[in-house]
Amino acid sequence: MKKLILFSLLFLVSCLSEERNTIKEAKNGFINLNQHSFQTDPFVALMGDWKFYWNTAPTNIQETNSDRILNLPNHWNGYQMEYGKISGFGHASFRLHIQLPDDLQETMALTVHEQDTSYAIYIDGKYYGGSGVPASNTNQFVPMVRSTIIVLPQQKNITIDLYVANYVHRKGGIWNDIVLSTYTKAESRLTKHKMNETILCSIFAFVGIFFLVMYFYNRDGRQTLGIFLFSLAVLLRTISTGERIVLEFIDLPYWILLRLEYLSWYWSAPLLYHYFYTIFPNEFSKKLGNVFYTLSAILTLGLILPPVYFTETASIYPIAFVLNGLFVLFYLFRAYQKNRMEAKPLLFGIGHILVGATNDVLHAEAIIHTTYIAPSTVVIFVFLQVFTFGRIVRQNIIKTLEFAEEQKQFSSSFSRFVPTEFLYHLGKDDIRQVDLGDQVQKRMTVLFADIRSFTEFSETLTPKENFDFLNSYLQRVGPIIRHNNGFIDKFIGDAVMALFPYNINDAVKAAVEMQEAIRLYNHHRANCGYIPIEVGIGIHTGNLTLGILGEHKRMEGTVISDAVNLASRIEGITKLFSSRIVISAETFIESSDTLGFHYRLLDRVNIKGKTESVFVVEVLDGYEPEKANRLISCLDDYTLSLDAYRREDFEEAKQGFASLLDKNPDDSVSRLFFERCKDALERSKLEIGTS
């Protein structure tokens, strides 16, 4: 909390930290600045006795020694004339003679801040600029509120005439300082004012949007809507007062701008009270809040009246505004005594607002002469709200992250049993969405991988060693399948069934990489004194059905299709040919030759459960590189020998395969065909002998 207080004070000081005005008191319409140093004190507020000419334009002034005097800045309301006191309506000129330093080199300028009506600046009888159109009648009069920088002529003695007219506001006259400085300093200060107010508006807008978004995420948190509405009210007041930065973007008529200013003022207090009521409903009085709401509603209806009427509330409403703040302060202090959550920073924040609001009201009424600080104190207040809610949000985020992590672990655990890819192809985002009977038809490539002679091999191991071996083996082949865009559907003992939903080449590439990984695994096993293993891989592509099978108490994801059965049978064919990777002709036809793999046709084989035999193809890259290169170099001879075998020219085929075996004695496929040719020739001789 101490750090917050220090930060708040530093922020307030930074918002107000600028070169202050040096006050020079004019006497009887004259001010001598001949000895003043604008390098040391760059800003001079021209306060004091200005000559006052009621209902007189600068061009009609006839100056005498008995001219009236009005101490500026001040309103002319109640000024005593021969015929009585004047009201806020009318027009008047203010004149001041200035003597500047002899050695002044820089261009001088006059800064006239917004005066809530309209004004014009005349220098030595010549019009130099202003805001709006001041005039002697309401037909020519055009009200406008805007700060102005007037560049002064390069001369030692100048006469300033400030012509002001008011026919709309409750008070007429000069509201703010008339400041003399160098043009560079004047422009820099005005730019800084606008930048500060723009930054304040950005903060209010950001905070408002932040809490509005929080409200939409949590409709039960009414306090977030309360701080949004309060931030919106303060935002509207900030853009419609001071430098009126809204005019930099939208050219609003005076009557809209003035009503926007008062509307934001009327509602800032009750919205602030309502915000605290939503946080501490037991400490704050709802009836009292309704009183402030009713008052603001009545005053808002009064905005349909001409400005001369509703601007009169500026002298009355501050009482209600301050009372509202005092009640908020009282109830917050009571909440603080009861150790209510976050009451301490809120109490600190509302204290800032009360100080700022009181200062601004007294400054606006010309009771004290300071500057407007309420927007800066409100920034401190909303910052404290962001901090307060930030801690609450942080706690919620931590809980949410913990829950998300639990859900992630939960999902990760389930994905080990039911692959997320399986759910994706079922059209499900979550395992909880799965129901019995969910199914979808897809065309995929099925890969079966099985360890050769695992039964005999496993008999030499204990149950634990069997599990350790299988897990070690599957740890190597599983990632390869996933890396190639496939997923494991199930483990069937030592066999692996994987699906490749996107590209046939993914399955072929995965099979080749699996054989490479198995060779590395065998090298590791040999170093450990274990016997090597061989794995046969069968691949087929076809239509299949993914779905949820079982009953309501026990379900599992599975794949049902003739394509699955055929892939399993093709894996069995690898044992017949002693091959490493065998694929169906359908897979071979649809696969791409751009991967650089090498194939050779094996034979048409009968598949159990199918009436027609199917062609199968061997992927030569599944062998060790040396063997694969030897087989690839003899592909043409193999093709000719296989063609002779299929033409039943067994003698020619036998010689061809014998020649291949001479080159590659470990070519199990050529050896199988060689033996078949021998058997065919022997049967042929027997048939000839018996005939």
Automatic annotation (TrEMBL):
<feature type="transmembrane region" description="Helical">
    <location>
        <begin position="197"/>
        <end position="217"/>
    </location>
</feature>
<feature type="transmembrane region" description="Helical">
    <location>
        <begin position="224"/>
        <end position="242"/>
    </location>
</feature>
<dbReference type="Pfam" id="PF07695">
    <property type="entry name" value="7TMR-DISM_7TM"/>
</dbReference>
<protein>
    <submittedName>
        <fullName>Putative adenylate cyclase putative membrane protein putative signal peptide</fullName>
        <ecNumber>4.6.1.1</ecNumber>
    </submittedName>
</protein>
<feature type="transmembrane region" description="Helical">
    <location>
        <begin position="262"/>
        <end position="280"/>
    </location>
</feature>
<dbReference type="Pfam" id="PF00211">
    <property type="entry name" value="Guanylate_cyc"/>
</dbReference>
<keyword id="KW-1133">Transmembrane helix</keyword>
<keyword id="KW-0812">Transmembrane</keyword>
<dbReference type="InterPro" id="IPR008979">
    <property type="entry name" value="Galactose-bd-like_sf"/>
</dbReference>
<feature type="transmembrane region" description="Helical">
    <location>
        <begin position="316"/>
        <end position="333"/>
    </location>
</feature>
<feature type="transmembrane region" description="Helical">
    <location>
        <begin position="292"/>
        <end position="310"/>
    </location>
</feature>
<feature type="transmembrane region" description="Helical">
    <location>
        <begin position="372"/>
        <end position="393"/>
    </location>
</feature>
<dbReference type="InterPro" id="IPR001054">
    <property type="entry name" value="A/G_cyclase"/>
</dbReference>
<dbReference type="InterPro" id="IPR029787">
    <property type="entry name" value="Nucleotide_cyclase"/>
</dbReference>
<dbReference type="InterPro" id="IPR011623">
    <property type="entry name" value="7TMR_DISM_rcpt_extracell_dom1"/>
</dbReference>
<dbReference type="InterPro" id="IPR050697">
    <property type="entry name" value="Adenylyl/Guanylyl_Cyclase_3/4"/>
</dbReference>
<keyword id="KW-0472">Membrane</keyword>
<feature type="domain" description="Guanylate cyclase">
    <location>
        <begin position="445"/>
        <end position="571"/>
    </location>
</feature>
<feature type="transmembrane region" description="Helical">
    <location>
        <begin position="345"/>
        <end position="366"/>
    </location>
</feature>
<dbReference type="GO" id="GO:0006171">
    <property type="term" value="P:cAMP biosynthetic process"/>
</dbReference>
<keyword id="KW-0456">Lyase</keyword>
<dbReference type="GO" id="GO:0035556">
    <property type="term" value="P:intracellular signal transduction"/>
</dbReference>
<dbReference type="GO" id="GO:0004016">
    <property type="term" value="F:adenylate cyclase activity"/>
</dbReference>
